[in-house]
Amino acid sequence: MSHSASQPDQPPPDSPAAAHAPLAGHLPGVVSEFQEPGLDRSSGWPHADQPLDRPATATVIAPDRAATSAIADIRADTNIEPASFQQVDLQPADILIVDDTPENLKLLAALLATEHYQIRKAINGSMALRAVAADPPDLILLDIMMPDMDGYSVCQALKADPSTADIPVIFLSGLSDAFDKVRAFETGGSDYITKPFHGQEVLARVRTHLQARSAQQRMAELNLDLERRVRERTWALEQANAALHTEIQERQRLQEQLMDLVLRDDLTGLPNRTAFTRELAERFQAARQAQADRVAVLFVDCDRFKVVNDSLGHFVGDQLLISLAQRLQALLEPPHLMARFGGDEFTLLLQGPDPLALAQTYADRVMEALQRSFQLQGHEIFTNASIGIAVDSDNYSHPEHLLRDADAAMYQAKTMGRGQYQQFNKAMHRYALQTLEMETELRHALQNQALQVAYQPIVCVATGELAGCEALVRWPHPVHGYVPPSMFIPVAEETGLIVAIGEFVLTEALKQIQQWNRDRPGDRPLFVSVNLSVRQINQQDFLEKFNQIVQSLAADLSCLKLEITEGVFMGHTPQNIAVLNNLRDREIQICVDDFGTGYSSLSYLQKLPVDILKIDRSFITPLNESHERGELVAAIIHIAQTMQKQIVAEGVETIAQLQKLQEFKCDFIQGYWVAKPLTVAEMEDFLINYPIKSWSHQG
Questions:
Q1: Quick check: is 161 in a domain?
Q2: Which DSSP letter does residue 44 get?
Q3: How many Cα atoms within 13 Å fall on the side-chain side of residue 665?
């Protein structure tokens, strides 16, 4: 339909008003349909015979009824006849999903399809940029970790191009650290959703950003229209300003909604880590500028939360976090603040005239609140917490140091037995620095192959015959001498270095035991026991790496025993049980090390793939001084042997202890009475000179 010459107040087709008429696809409820050759909108995959960089074609959609009515009202007030618009069907918003994992693409596409959005998919960053260049979408859901170029690089490229800079980009990633989120926003991201995501959250954020984009585009159009109105009709300025003010308010409202999403934890509804650190910084500065009350920080970690997750599933784990958050939040009163810091960690920000007393009071309240069980999905769950306390003082110049020290105190509470709280002191800071230094030096020792393996003999009680040995890692430090395993093994466990250490010990022990058995052709083959950590067994590729080591050495597995702690069975995870059964099927015996110091019971172990129990030295040391302890050890040995399980007594240091164990018919002993852990050379001398002891004549 063309414009009539009898309508002088209407802008001609080539006027600024016509050139900048509002795009229908960016009004509420209206979306432009862009067809990109080479990208299949039904399947989401590019055709092989159609390039992605061909020019896109577009169908311009008319404004919806509300927009048409608004324009008609303006023109009626100014005695201008409304312009004609091409009326065509409205199309849904066009959303591009970028992820290198087909399962994620399929899941997100199915989720967004419930809102009738037009969906396109790209499996890498390069394909995404070509798709956007051919046909810009209304919104992009972007993964971060991709092979050819990561999500940050894709977003930077989009924001550097004026034609695509305004497209909202929502990052979807498994990276949950605040640094990753800050980087996402610095590259131009509009939002950040952490995997695993909640479907309703994704839909809500997509809907919000589409509305925000629509409002932003409408605002730009109004500004252009305002210039025309000033030139044509002075009186129209007030109406345009009123419309602009409304749009600004809407944008501010949307920004406030987005800010709330950024600062709130999705699962519990509590303030998140970002919100907590901001509030801590504000109160920290206020206490110095206005002589306000000082603050205290409580760092709360839910003990053994992983056991709940592994045994009952992540859904029950999430419900536990929600219930725990609600129970602890009910303890607080203004102006105190509670936040979910991440995972199973919560932080409390307390402020008052005596912050230390306040912190101790609330720590006691938290402990008391967790004495009551949680009823979740038909399960009664008990949990407790380890709490660290840091109190503001003149010694602090940065608020984040309070968090650091509260975290250090929390780890000290865990070390001292969990289910308690500790107040930070300078010794903890020194310990944290020493731990960091030890981790660095331990990494260097691994890289430089500076670790050693020692071997402690294991002897048959009935015959006195040498049966085998246990392989133990040793760290000869160039400055401090031999570092006790009790110092560096916990650091290795916490940092994950225990995996590499375990592989090193297994390789060296298999290599050495085969050599010793070859050197003793007429004697009974010796076995070697090698420790496996929980972290090693939990590795998805544990069996693959284990097989690689065994195959590279052509090892005889009948001479190998693997020692695990009771922690492997906590939660009774099917994966761990399957791994141990796989090992036993290959004639490898499984030993439970330090039995009696954890949570296992003999009846429980009867159901598990275990062949040998190693009684902890804490039971053996008082064997002759405590009648009750002797009866307990005798009962353990008797019941275990009834279950067809062998017993090794650890820490045997005296003939009196040996005689008791002979009386109890223990199978094997290990300890300083036989020999300390020996170097390879010392062990070879031991093999040559060791006599079979006549146990009955020892006095």
A1: yes
A2: -
A3: 10
Q: Which CATH number belongs to the domain containing residue 126 in this structure?
A: 3.40.50.2300
Report the alpha-carbon distance of residue 463 to residue 219 in Å, rounded: 92
> Using one digit for the tens of pLDDT, what is the confidence trace for 268-304?
999 999 999 999 999 999 998 887 899 999 999 998 8
CA distances from 625 to 620, 632, 657 (A): 10, 13, 10
Q: Which residues are bridge partners to 345 per DSSP? A: 301, 342
The per-residue pLDDT for range 639-695, each reduced to its tens digit, is: 889 999 999 999 999 999 999 999 999 999 999 999 999 999 999 999 998 876 545
Structural domain harbouring 370: 274-424
> In Å, how far are 253, 641, 647, 649, 695 from 465, measured between CA atoms?
81, 20, 16, 15, 10
pTM of the model: 0.53
Residue with tokens 């865990």: 414
In terms of domains, do 567 and 639 share one? yes
Question: Following DSSP, what letter does each residue of 478-525 receive, concatenated?
Answer: TTTEEEPHHHHHHHHHHHTHHHHHHHHHHHHHHHHHHHHHHH-TTSPP
Indicate whether 695 belongs to any domain. Answer: no
Judge if 280 and 401 occupy the same domain: yes
Among the three residues 243, 263, 283, which one is the final residue of a domain in this structure? 263
Same domain, 206 and 294: no
Q: What is the Cα–Cα distance from 330 to 342, expressed in whole angstroms? A: 20
Identify whether residues 220 and 286 lie together within a single domain: no
- Residue 370, judged by CB atoms within 10 A of its CB (0-12, 13-18, 19+), counts as buried
Residues across the chain:
699
In a domain, 673, yes or no: yes
Name the token pair of 85.
Answer: 């618009």
- DSSP annotation string for 408-419: HHHHHHHHTTSS
| Residue at a domain's end among 263, 283, 311 | 263
In degrees and rounded to multiples of 5, residue 491 shows phi and psi of: -65, -40
Per the structure, how many domains does the chain have? 3
Q: Are 143 and 101 in contact (CB under 8 A)?
A: yes
